Amino acid sequence: MRAVxxxxxxxxxxxxxxxxxxxxxxxxxxVLAAGICGTDRxxxxxxxxxxxxxxxxxxxxxxxxxxxEGVSLAVGTRIACDPNIACGQCDQCLRGRxxxxxxxxxxxxxxxxxxxxxxxxxxxRAVETxxxxxxxxAFAEPLACTLHGVDLGQPIPGERVLVIGGGVIGLLxxxxxRNAGAEVTLLTRHPAKRELALSLGAMQAVATEAEARDVLxxxxxxxxxxAGVADTVEMAPRLxxxxxxxxxxGVLPKGQKVQIEPFDLLFREIHLLHSFIxxxxxxxxxxxxxxxxxxxxxxxxxxxxxxxxxxxxAEPAAPGEVKVLVDPGLA
Length: 331
Ligand SMILES: [Zn+2]
Ligand SMILES: [Zn+2]
Prior knowledge:
Elements: E1 2-8, E2 11-16, E3 26-35, H1 38-45, E4 54-55, E5 60-67, E6 78-81, E7 84-85, H2 91-94, E8 105-106, E9 118-122, E10 126-128, H3 134-137, H4 140-153, E11 160-164, H5 168-179, E12 183-187, H6 191-199, E13 204-206, H7 209-215, E14 220-225, H8 230-238, E15 240-248, H9 262-267, E16 271-274, H10 282-290, E17 300-304, H11 309-314, E18 323-326
Parallel strand pairs: 11-12, 11-14, 12-13, 14-15, 15-16, 17-18
Antiparallel strand pairs: 1-2, 1-4, 3-5, 3-9, 3-18, 5-6, 6-10, 7-8
Helix pairs in contact: 4-5, 4-10
Bound molecules: zinc ion (2 copies).
């Protein structure tokens, strides 16, 4: 079968490999859609730790086509993969903080993922998606990650929420905050993404910090940083009201430093929080997608075959592009 493998940092390509066989407790999944994520680009550039060679993609959906010993999930079941396999035994797992597991194994990072015709995953990491279109089910993982960040930020009706960054996470955060009853503003320099945010429930969309200050003169109750850029992380406290909260969901390259002023955060008692991956949120995310509480069709910029995936990951995202999906069924 074909698989898009990271062979070394800076070297990704489509290669022919043996189809995997499901071991005990595993299912073999035919991949129907896999999203290209900023993390895949970080992995390609060596900015996020992993151990190549490995088939990338941690955001995928498909159908169970075979199962190993001890699996009750039926062949033919449509699923979305929750890629994080916590050990269940370390100190963090025993405290219920499974996303902080010291020995977490992420499918598509530490073991082979979904940029392939088929992939094996533990059956307990497969979340049933029923009649949800697989191109939409591929958003279950990024939505689950965004849901965790919004859970941490706890927006309530009537609050003012500023989302910084108009990528997939930002545009999902806009919808989750709006669903929570907040008045949402999106800050992004891309005009097309501002338009998209307005059509998805943002009240305002602005291009710069100065414009954000115009619409939020006292700052936002909650700022969700979804850009993963040093400038926007530094900007977040300046756009947060006294007594407000910041949640950073954006992934900055490992080693990147930012300047913040602890005195300002102290004196204005601003809570600065970070959100990492998707603890126990994948089922809720899948349900929200099935109920159409979150719209993802407008976030799909293009759907490409496996043969084009390596180049799409190696090159930076095109301006205005939101989510590129890989559909291994396309020739
Ligand atoms: Zn991702
Ligand atoms: Zn653990």
